[in-house]
Write the structure tokens for this entry.
Amino acid sequence: MRNPERTPTSVAARLGGWSVRHRKTAIIGWLLFVIAASMIGGMVGQTTMKPYENGAGDSARAEKILSDAGIQHPAGEMVIVHSAEPGGWRDAAGAVAAGVRATGRVDHLQPALAARDGRDGLVRFDVSGDPETAPDRVQPVLDAVARVKAAHPEVTIGQFGDASSGKWLNDILGKDFAQAEWTAVPLALGILLIVFGALLAALLPVGLALTAFIAANGLLAVGSHALHVFDTTSSVMMLIGLAVGVDYCLFYIRRERDERAAGHDKETALRIAAATSGRSVLVSGLTVMLAMAGMFLSGLLLFKGFALATMLVVLIAMLGSVTVLPALLSLIGDKVEFGRLPFVRRGRGRRARGGRVSAAVLRPVLARPGIFALLAAGVLVVLAAPAVGMRTQSLGLDQQMSKGTPMVDAYQRITRAFPGGPAPAQVVVKATDIRSPQVTQAIAALKSEAGHSEEFGAPVVVTVHADRNVAQIDVPLAGDGTGAVSQHALATLRERLVPATVGGVATAHVTGQLAGSLDFTAQLRADIVPVFAFVMVVTFLLMLVSFRSVAVAVTAIVLNLLSVGAAYGVMVAVFQHGWGAGLFGAEPVGAIESWMPLFVFVVLFGLSMDYHVFVVSRIREARDRGLRTRDAVADGVRSSAGVVTSAAAIMVAVFAVFATLSMQDMKQMGVGLAVAVFLDATVVRAVLLPSAMALLGEPNWYLPRWLGWLPKVSHGDETATPRPVEHAIPVRR
């Protein structure tokens, strides 16, 4: 018999106890921390990656040469004019040239280029000034082209370029992410209102998650000066922060309210919540952070920025959940029921209903665990099957956006009429003397060979920066810019033409959209194995230490791999093969965004541990009270079913919002994460986990003698109300 007066000594219990005793200090300290972090971040500003920092391999080396020399890619623009008859485009093309010249905002306006069939003309120019700010200054040029388009209805006119596409994307992304952020928060709040049935109780998790994000965003700005981040990193951090922040608070508040419903006073209920759910929050938060840390091994700055951002927001949300949250609950007391919804029943009735539903599911599962384990695993394996043929690449603009959009239509028209024109390969040459006869002859030889080859388009454009001893050679690639024809042309350029010409007399590297995509994907493939291995090893070790069980640790790894595999399979089926793509408002693009598999793996492996730790902790807690393993499984799954379902609903809702955005990579991320969390909370936690643990029985808690030195950690609380064995769900033996 445990001593009811014994004080819990876990870290979570001590943190919760201190916060309750010093609640004003905890609350004011939290607010000051959030304000200070936000103000400091605003003052220093966020530093984003330079182009060469977002790449890898040969293309990144080419971009580094340009960056070191202070050479920026000019904001090039192209206007294609199509006519039904050969040459019928010339008058309109002349009007386009005159119109854009009159704006005073263009440089290097070139004579119109005719397509081979004579029905298309291409007007090329650069937007003057800093290319980084060109999207903000391109509107007069767009207006000039629009006026010509209105005046010449007999031809089809489309515009595409760095500035115009940049402006278009900025407008869309700004609208999309604002929509996502303003939709995800009300969705989470609405679900919490249903879960708690009271406005104030629902506002607490959302408020803590948002303040955690605000503080993390400020600290990310400080950290970005040492580790440059991608410009959408804050949006990814918002996604993760809202999901985990709300979940952690939900775990804590639900346990505190369950204990109050069981008859405990406020102080005792908070102490039990701190020692049980508080500990689960610390373990799951640490697991998520360690999983995210695996992205540091990727070798790509993009993932290192994601790792820094997600670790910051998870750390702050985790600490807030075990410090300021218990302080707020202690201060508010029973007023947490403020704003109660009249149509939601309270107390034990709600809990009993959740128990009846989970009991109805568990009864057949635990009666025939072998059959249900095979069925659940079979469902996940079938869903994962399409992932075997996964194809990854960096999606171009024409793949990222819907095909009916004017910008994508113009891009595709230019690609068909002038292969390689919108996204040529670029050879960057660095020499001691770029004007020397040897280098000049080598550049001329490269231009001549490319111009006479069927694998390359026209024109091959050479730009020499004599004062920096650097030359840029734009070589259009045959094909659609991404397919096998273009890839073969790029390989020919890199492996034969460049080494035989400029590569023999100077330093030469090849960059461009396709080159960067292939180099990035190759780097990912080389790095994905160590990242996967790191995440699985640290997850195994953390589960081993937390539960002192080899079986629990191995089960966690296997179940998470099945969840991730199913998510991969659904993503491939929808976005690569187009099966059911219309249900998600998506279009099949034939590939998965290259960074998606690694990112989804790391995020899901971390977030899945929220549910796993919480459910297994309740199972271990029941077993520590004296229940047999199978009865403990039934009790633990039933008692955690409501909170796991609620937490999963919030995560699925938040991730599903991102599936509604315009960009294909955001859709892929949203669908992949939402599907995986749904499967994890239903098929895995409700069926596969209990059936697997029921099959294993007492070996679930096996720990070799040589690991007996691992610290013993209590999973319950001495003052918690024990559930008698007869309350467990009856199962066949």
